[in-house]
Amino acid sequence: MELYNKKKWWKRLLLILGLIIIAASLFYTNILVNKFAQTERKNVKLWADAVHRKVKLVEYTDRFFGQLREQEREKVELLADVYRHLLSDSSSRDLTFYLNIINKNKTIPVILTDKNGKINSANNVDWNPDTVPYLTGKLKEEFSVYPPIKVPEVDNYLYYNNSRLYYELQDVLNDYISSFMSEVTLNSSSVPVIITDSTMENIIQFGNLNDIRMSDPAYAKKKLEEMKRENDPIVIKFSDQNTSYIFYKDSDLLTKMKLFPIAQILIISVFLFIAYLLFSSSRKSEQNRVWAGMAKETAHQIGTPLSSIMAWLELIKMDPANASRAAVEIEKDVKRLEMISDRFSKVGSTPSLENDNLVKIIYNTVAYLKPRTPRKVNYVINIPEDKDIIIPVNASLFSWVIENLCKNAIDAMDGKGTITIDLKEENNHVNIDITDTGKGIPVSEQKAIFNPGYTKKKRGWGLGLSLAKRIIKEYHKGKIFVKTSAQGKGSTFRIVLNRQV
């Protein structure tokens, strides 16, 4: 129960730390996004202010051009009146004044025709009057902007039009307006823009929007409605009859930056969810391997003495004379079963360490293993049997470690070779080296072999070295690792135990 409580506490702590990290990251990101958004909005405001100023300039230019147009129109009307008086007032004694006005006209085009449209005279036109005898077709349409002046006495008609200067000014103004529209739509601030006519529905131009998607009327209308909701339009009045509206919204980059924190939360959430699934799956898999390994290890440990007991019982049945000898061996196997039970009971709890002779434990373990291992396996212990090395140790569990390392060595040697055990004392600890003449362990696998479930045996369960590491590291506060290993020459495992725990 205490273990599960600790796990819950750690989970809660990690969850709180994770939430703090995520909150801090989002808070900082949000600050950056807000700063960027403020800069973008400032740029948009500057752009809108610049557009307002240009609109005023366009309106001023339009008024100026309008005044020029009015002056040109007044000149045309004056000239028309002169021609009307000149042609209708034949009794005038002094026509010099009218003729001077007509001669000073260097810009307004005029054409005098009879009732059949035959041209009698023309002035300020860009074509040769001698080559055009009649006022018809496009030429007549061009000079019908204003109604002609009829001269009743001679049944003639005077046609006139705006001057070339007037049309040149009109072209300049149109180019200026077109240039202004282009500058608005293709702005350097990357602001999406839509320009409409006076109805606020018909789109004249747009900029910084997807050309293909804007060709869809439904999408274009949707974008226009979005802009109407986001900002008030900028009004452009080119004349009393010509008004346009500029609609705009935040740039796409600013919109994406606003959504960035939300995207970050989603990405982090997905990452944490996947990490949790992987961790949970890995943990469950490891637990399954451990449970399966423990079950198999238990069966294996118990199987040897049970098989021996059953064999001795059969021998007694066959020949009761072997009862005394069998009783001694059965007693050994029963003690072995007691040791196995003791070992497994201590794996799940914190065992007590008592001062014991390390040399004696090693010799007793090897003495038990010798008759139960292949005859071609030799054991060499380079420690005097009568030497005493007293350290805090749990004899039952430490003996299990030696057994597992020796069994691992026997498997690596395929049941034939030498196992050498060395012991070296140092100031604060004792080093035990167990060397075999087996196949060796690749460098890439020297740490992985201590993981639960790691094995290369067809019938192995990968628990022996994992248990050995747990016993040495967690219970004895020592170390166990692969000291040296060479392919085809063997390996050396080192156990480091402290003299005082």
SSE run: HHEEHEEHEEHHEEHHEHEEHEEHEE
Please summarize the sheet with the most strands.
5 strands, mixed
CATH architecture of the domain at 352-498: 2-Layer Sandwich
Give the end-to-end Cα distance, rounded to a whole number of Å: 26 Å
CATH fold-level topology of the domain at 352-498: Heat Shock Protein 90
Helix content: 55-70%
In terms of DSSP E residues, the strand content is 15-25%
Radius of gyration: 53 Å
Text of the CATH class of the domain at 352-498: Alpha Beta
Poorly predicted segments: 1-5
The strand count comes to: 15
Write a structural description.
- With about 500 residues, this protein is of the alpha+beta class.
- Among the domains are: about 185-250, no CATH class; about 350-500, Histidine kinase-like ATPase, C-terminal domain (Heat Shock Protein 90, 2-Layer Sandwich), CATH 3.30.565.
- It has 11 helices and 15 strands.
- The chain has helices spanning about 1-90, 95-105, 135-140, 165-185, 210-215, 215-230, 250-320, 325-345, 360-370, 395-410, 465-475; strands at about 110-115, 120-125, 150, 155-160, 195, 205, 235, 245-250, 355, 375-380, 390-395, 415-425, 430-435, 480-485, 490-500.
- The chain has a 5-stranded mixed β-sheet. A 4-stranded antiparallel β-sheet has the order 2-1-4-3, covered by helices on one side.
- The longest helix has about 90 residues, at about 1-90.
- Residues about 1-5 have low confidence and may be disordered.
